[in-house]
Amino acid sequence: MTDSSQVTYVRQSMPRLNEPAPDFEAVTTHGVRKLSDYRGKWLVLFSHPADFTPVCTTEFMAFARAHDKFAALNTELLGLSIDSKYAHIAWVRSIEQNFGVQVKFPIIEDLSMKVANAYGMIMPGADDTSAVRATFIIDPDGVLRAMVYYPMSNGRSIDEFVRLITALQTSDANKVATPENWQPGDKVIVPPPQTADAAAARKDEGFEYTDWYFSKKSLEPA
Questions:
Q1: Where are the domains of the chain?
Q2: Apex 107 CA angle, 75 and 113, nearest 5
Q3: Do domains 4-156 and 175-217 have the same CATH topology?
Q4: How far is CA 10 from the centre of its chain?
Q5: Rounded Cα–Cα distance for residues 149 and 6 (Å)
Q6: CATH code of the domain occupying 175-217
Q7: Catalytic residue positions, numbered
Q8: What's the predicted TM-score (pTM) here?
Q9: Of the candidates 203, 168, 204, which has an alpha carbon nearest to the alpha carbon of residue 188?
Q10: In the chain, at which residue ranges do the beta strands (DSSP E only) sit?
Q11: Which residue stretches of the chain have pLDDT < 50?
Q12: In which element (H, E) is residue 85 found?
């Protein structure tokens, strides 16, 4: 049974959506990186259990192959694991030699687990770092907009992060929400009315109307 002091610590150590992402300064395979280096850009910060592991290798190759898709969305990639930069370098070289995939983004050396702990990447009760597989999407203002955790046995869908960032940017630019599995070109959800009078008027506002709280519309081509 978890005591109350441990519960308090876990709650305090977890980052929260729509608040500033935890600041960091860390050694990477591309030199020192700070969160402030990414101001003005979106950032995908993702951790993996360990270098030279098969599931993580498939994920890193997928991130590397999607590098241009993220770049087109003004998005940078930044990996992390509890391994040294030398292990990272050796692993990246192995990926290129064995699979022909070049990893161009930096990978944080987090031997002290300072960044991992600040972002809640170490799960409570874990007896090693192999439980770490987390992804954080940070916006150009340094605000944490999404976080996703996966078990060590199952790899992430990198295409989903491309889709999610596209959806977040669309929502921000147009003040709308996006439905399940929204793709560019699909209709978006109009924010529901905030008063009874506005709800009564919604049917006649020209949207694709289902009920006062559920209406869609098409976005004008960019």
A1: 4-156, 175-217
A2: 115
A3: no
A4: 20
A5: 21
A6: 3.30.1020.10
A7: 56
A8: 0.89
A9: 168
A10: 25-28, 31-34, 42-47, 75-81, 107-109, 134-138, 144-149, 188-189, 208-211, 214-217
A11: 1-12
A12: helix 85-99
- State pLDDT tens for residues 175-192: 999 999 999 999 999 999
Pick the CATH number of 4-156 from 3.40.50.2300, 3.40.50.300, 3.40.30.10, 3.30.70.1560: 3.40.30.10
CA-angle at 190, arms to 189 and 191, nearest 5°: 115
Give me 67's structure tokens: 């590098």
Other beta carbons within 10 angstroms of residue 38's beta carbon come to 19
CA–CA gap between residue 37 and residue 45 (Å, rounded):
13
Other residues' Cβ atoms within 10 Å of the Cβ of residue 162? 17
Which residue shows structure tokens 């610590």?
9
